[in-house]
Amino acid sequence: MPERRVTMADVARKAGVSPTTASFALSGRTDMRISDASRERVLEAARELGYRPNVTARSLRTKSTQTIGFVSDRITTTPFAGDVIRGAMEAARERDNLLFITEAGGDRAAESSLVHALLDRQVDAVIYASMFTRYVTPPKELFGRRVVLLNCLAPGFDAPSVVPDELEAGRDAARALLAAGHTEGIWAIGGHQAVPATPEGIIAGNERMRGLEEVLRAGGARLDGVVECDWDTRDGYREVSALLAAGHRPRALVCLTDRVSMGAYQALGEAGLSVPGDVSVVSFDDQDIAAVLRPALTTLKLPHYRLGRLAVELILGEGPLEAAVHRVPMPLQDRASIGTPATR
Amino acid sequence: MPERRVTMADVARKAGVSPTTASFALSGRTDMRISDASRERVLEAARELGYRPNVTARSLRTKSTQTIGFVSDRITTTPFAGDVIRGAMEAARERDNLLFITEAGGDRAAESSLVHALLDRQVDAVIYASMFTRYVTPPKELFGRRVVLLNCLAPGFDAPSVVPDELEAGRDAARALLAAGHTEGIWAIGGHQAVPATPEGIIAGNERMRGLEEVLRAGGARLDGVVECDWDTRDGYREVSALLAAGHRPRALVCLTDRVSMGAYQALGEAGLSVPGDVSVVSFDDQDIAAVLRPALTTLKLPHYRLGRLAVELILGEGPLEAAVHRVPMPLQDRASIGTPATR
DNA sequence: GCATCTTGCTAATCCGATTTAACAACGGAG
DNA sequence: CTCCGTTGTTAAATCGGATTAGCAAGATGC
Predict the structure, then answer these.
(1) Can you name the residues that pair with B333 across neighbouring β-strands?
(2) pLDDT at B196 over 50
(3) Structural domain includes residue B26
(4) Interchain proximity B86–A96, CB inside 8 Å
(5) Residue B202: its pLDDT value, please?
(6) Are the beta carbons of A120 and B262 separated by less than 8 Å?
């Protein structure tokens, strides 16, 4: 049975002052003249009693619960996207905030219900997050509220977005290939926007391809072909097998995600081709498999942690939120899957 | 600018009754005689105004915030353990509760600070979770509180624990091998408790091995050897390579975790041995790689979702919490890595 | 016809803080 | 000696609900 919590009234009584004085002393407000002696006695009493303010009670008056709601479609289940939550959480903690984490599973009704549950608990702000970078329409309950969109964009919805810089990542993939000397026999596996589950289309594929082609072209290289397929291991395996069976001999593969890379590794291995000796591979996302594949995969990392952190930093910043798009760099994880082009 | 929230006073005014009557009508209490007419008017007014009770304000009086705190060492970052959170979250939602998710990163001071932050917000209960199944000592702030231990055990701490049934999983691994006809040439890779980062020792390794050996022996089979190593891909690769280099010819490998299995696959592949033609592999955990390895890995799944769900169900159950240990079955994911023993 | 019960409703308090308005006590100016 | 401005402090109101105690009006009992 937890003993009754110490209240401010207890502190005031022990310090021999009124609750009002205790409140001012504890909140450290200077506009409300408290003698040093009184302040000291209150602080001392609070320390001795182990007083901690009841945030819930305080919020009734101040309207601030120091609490942020986090609504996502499926983000907690996505491999490694837990880093988004960790980034958000740590940034929140640094400013004495806590996070309500919720997941609607893509269900609009569940989403509304969750947002209501959050608002009923007086959250100060809401982070609306998506598993894939895509266009969304936030539930109407969020209109006019303090919101940051995480990993998604909502034209017409007045809130800042935080997204990975996919375009620049595409460019960096091209730069990495060019730097190793690749100018021909380059294939892209995974295509532009091949995830069937997202009708709005995912942004990642398009922007990665755009950046890739732009820099390749500028560097005097070209893409031999683009294979459209789902972003999973099975499809990567099948498409690369088919490519090889058709007689093509790629020197470099740009896989649109690590899962596809893993499938590509399997297909190349079965064909007796080595990475990066015969074929270089550069990838995107840096999922957990990327570092344990052999050879370790060179990939452009989704900056999960920084995405989560930036979202919270924006939300807890002063002043109104501007409807800008914040792009977070995707750092190159330079490992072992890119080599100099194989000589024929 | 969100317009002022509708309060119960607004509803009462619109319905032409006192706030007291509105409160009773809305809470549906039968012990406090409200005429059907009044009740109907209040409900109608609430509906029209879109009234939602302020949970924060209510909790000031009732002491219940319908909110649960979740404290873990690193669980949000563990691959796929997001399922724990999802299970907990969904169970919470079904009973109109929300979850504060926090992560202390193994830091005792941070842990205390987080628990305080939770208690300051008047959480009704706390789930104390660990990434690995192990012994823990919860922070003193949690003593006497409503707590459920998730994936950990704390002797002397009066709270229920929810853990995977590792012992039975070990037995099931043995049964799967016996059923396929394996009785000799069986090696265990990963050993008893080889994770260096957990000084308390992890329970999983020991119990898995115990169940494995027990059923193997009862079935007239035996373990040719146990290789102790870290639970990661690199070590699995190195140890299995060494095993083969030493001239051993295992017919079945029991890998203590999927990461080790992945390393084993790599080593076996390099040695020209096929799975399951030459060597069967059975594993534990069912991480995300298990299903995408080729051949797909047969493994005993860590029941993340059900662990999280059960913890919340216990916490939101009626009455006091008993200090019992709840073991959740680890279902066999029967895929393609076990075959009949190779003939010499 | 008067005392007693029900029935239906509401005034007043409380929960734990913050904040506004006001009030003593004191010192200096005139 | 009075007036006024500081300084330090506190009573009271407030936030949005839940709950206790009590109060009218009508029904019932004898």
Answers:
(1) B299
(2) no
(3) yes
(4) no
(5) 62
(6) no
